[in-house]
Amino acid sequence: MPELPEVETIKRQLVQKIIGKVIAEVEVNKPKQFKGKIVDIMGAKITDVNRKAKFLILDLDNGKHILIHLKMTGQLIFVDPSGKYGGGHPIPPFNLPVPNKYTHITIRFKDGSVLYFNDLRQFGWMKVLDKIEKEKELQKTGIEPLSPNFTIDKFKQLLAKKPNAKIKLFLMDQSIISGIGNIYASEICYYAHVLPDRTNKTLTNQEIQRIHESIIKVLKLAIKYNGTSANDYVNLDGRQGTFDKMLRVYNRKGKRCECGGAINKVKMGQRGTYYCDNCQK
DNA sequence: TATATTGTTACACC
DNA sequence: TGGTGTAACAATAT
């Protein structure tokens, strides 16, 4: 499920754990999820970990990069020989020890620590790329919403490119803005008091400003709470994020908004979309 | 049994 | 051409 805040959370934990580690062994159980040559990363040292959009990028000292996309149900679990990070996963079917039947790729480091790639639905992947291939892949992604470049003017420009798009689907379009998925798109519309099916061209200046602020506010808040654990997301150490307690509309159909309004659910672009019928206009 | 599920993309269609 | 909308990918849970 990971969206930007979850991937960012994992990235921050990976930075602390795997920089400087040397890859000693790679085990691939689902070849379709590992693209590239294992031999290209054997013996390489991890020099840095970055995130762009929902991609994780591991830089290696041999000039190669490992690009990781977790898609809907991918997880990265780091296990230290001390056992410190080998803790249980709280949510079935992930309350299993690692490795388990959803562990499809295993990277063992020279010092004995291990990084497991688990993925129930098998949509996620790891790719070994050189610098040029990596940049080509990342070029397709839109602006980072938490970068200083994402100004209100820039946002207005982007909105004007697709006047007939519905705002929620627009926010989720990775080629325009990076990292907003289905959960946060609903939440952002809620915080901005705007109905998710409003088209871009109908938005007032004030509403655009509120949406822009909400994007930044919601994503930052979610990162602060280590992401959302709606169903099967866990942190690098196997624990849940706690942002789900902060969700205002997502997965709350039939409940009451703080304003007293009813929270409704509709489908947009084949995805569950939640909103308050009172305070979103 | 039918429907739902957090992401992305291939492809049909206009 | 380009933009848009839908099915598909797979394995569950309800």
Description:
With 281 residues, the protein is of the alpha+beta class. Helices cover 25% and strands 22% of the residues. It has helices spanning 4-18, 131-139, 152-161, 167-172, 182-191, 205-224; strands spanning 23-28, 34-35, 46-52, 55-60, 65-69, 74-79, 103-109, 114-119, 125-129, 263-268, 271-276. Strands 2-9-5-4-3 form a 5-stranded mixed sheet. Strands 1-7-8-6 form a 4-stranded antiparallel sheet, covered by helices on one side. A two-stranded antiparallel sheet has the order 10-11. Helix 1 runs parallel beside helix 6 (205-224) and helix 5 (182-191) packs across helix 6. The chain binds a DNA duplex (14 and 14 nucleotides) through helix 5.
